[in-house]
Amino acid sequence: MGDILDDRARSILFQAARTHSKFKDTPVPDDVLRQAWDLARMGPTSANCQPARIVFVRSPEAKQRLKPALAPGNLDKTMAAPVTAIIGHDMEFYERLPVLFPHADARSWFLGNETMIQGTALRNGTLQGGYFILALRALGLDCGPMSGFDNAKVDAAFFAGTPIRSNFLINIGHGDPAGLYPRGPRLDFAEACRIE
């Protein structure tokens, strides 16, 4: 085995990390978002396809474009968050495969196969969104990932004329512990896993 993270690092990424609904009024610098991407992009994707595309919604104008797509329960917390990331995936990710996976003709695997394109884009884009959450936590930020929005409205407002489709949102900032709910229970190993 390689190096093992110490207890503090594991806590930052998993045990102490929480899903935040309320954030402090502390800005999130662009450079930290870039650092998070630089970490997250190193996570594995099938055939190194890297379909994730992220829009960081920060300006008042961009927040107003996002607002009509939000479910009522997500409206106030998203409008107040310093940054909201739209995690999307490029439905034409395969066009980059000659560069990203040059040792095989991986592009040909997808041409004309919509089922494979959709499954690969969603699965790997979601993986990359998960890596991004861990990268943000590793850099000292808190996250509030969520569904609860109208994907078609988000796509029209932020991805019109592109092959990118939204998947989920992440509110990002420095979490306010006063807004935390009690931690929900987790399934134990025997409930969720088996070894055969």
Automatic annotation (TrEMBL):
Its EC number is 1.-.-.-. Its cofactor is FMN. Gene3D superfamilies: NADH Oxidase (3.40.109.10). Residues 18-173 form the Nitroreductase domain. GO terms for molecular function: oxidoreductase activity. The keyword Repressor does not apply. Keywords: Flavoprotein, FMN, NAD, NADP, Oxidoreductase. It comes from the Bacteria. PANTHER family: MALONIC SEMIALDEHYDE REDUCTASE RUTE-RELATED. Belongs to the nitroreductase family. HadB/RutE subfamily. This is Putative NADH dehydrogenase/NAD(P)H nitroreductase H261_13529. It comes from Paramagnetospirillum caucaseum.
